[in-house]
Design brief:
This protein is an alpha+beta fold. It contains 6 helices and 3 strands. It has a 3-stranded mixed beta sheet with strand order 1-2-3, with helices on one face. The longest helix is centred in the middle third of the chain and has 16 residues.
Length: 211
């Protein structure tokens, strides 16, 4: 064993040669293992099977093992913020959004006329089917996000979204018409040549002599 390895070893100076060899072998083996941090503690990158332990580490009190993966990661991601901002509008909004619902929170002083002091109306818009179990889970998360003096009125709304496709087309082109050339301002003059010819032929006929 090298001097550096001996300095890093936790074994006592009177270690045996076998103990020193095992210590060195396990040290080399551990060096091959890639450390899981910090991805293990990141709610977005942590393995799905580890999320329940990460949720317990962050003090999540309401946990549903059968919930979708996106909801579990959102719950773990917002756990510390909800605890840190408990009693504020932001905490109530995070409690609703952690269940994959869209929050709309109205405080008592935002109403006309003003409502009962320290009262809030929480509107949770759900895009997925909503049942009694989801309602109980929402109440539990809102209870953990509100302060002791707050009074909440919770309403549930079902929201649906769809896509509308519109299309238009524009065809641009040019039409070119070519006409034959017509000249209107052209004058042409050519010399005219006239010729005449006279051909005179004289015919002589000779007959044989007759006695």
């Amino acid at each position: 064993m090298s001097d550096e390895a001996q300095a890093l070893s936790l074994l006592p100076p009177n270690r045996s040669l076998l103990e020193a060899g095992l210590d060195l072998a396990f040290a080399k083996l551990l060096e091959r293992i890639e450390p899981p941090f910090p991805a293990l503690m990141d709610p977005a990158a942590s393995p799905l099977d580890f999320l329940p332990y990460l949720a317990a580490d962050r003090g999540v009190s309401e946990w549903q093992p059968a919930a979708p993966e996106a909801e579990k990661r959102a719950t773990v991601r917002t756990a510390w913020e909800v605890k840190r901002l408990a009693g504020t509008r932001r905490a109530l909004e995070q409690a609703v959004s952690s269940l994959q619902m869209r929050p709309d929170v109205t405080a008592w002083y935002e109403k006309t006329p003003a409502g009962t002091p320290y009262s809030f109306e929480v509107m949770a818009w759900a895009e997925q089917p909503f049942d009694e179990q989801t309602n109980a889970r929402l109440d539990a998360r809102l209870a953990a996000a509100m302060s002791e003096r707050d009074v909440l009125t919770t309403r549930i709304g079902l929201s649906t979204t769809s896509r509308t496709y519109r299309a238009s087309a524009l065809l641009c082109g040019e039409t070119t018409t070519i006409y034959p050339l017509q000249t209107t301002e052209l004058e042409q003059s050519n010399p005219v040549h006239i010729a005449a010819a006279l051909n005179t032929v004289e015919t002589t006929t000779i007959y044989p002599l007759e006695a």
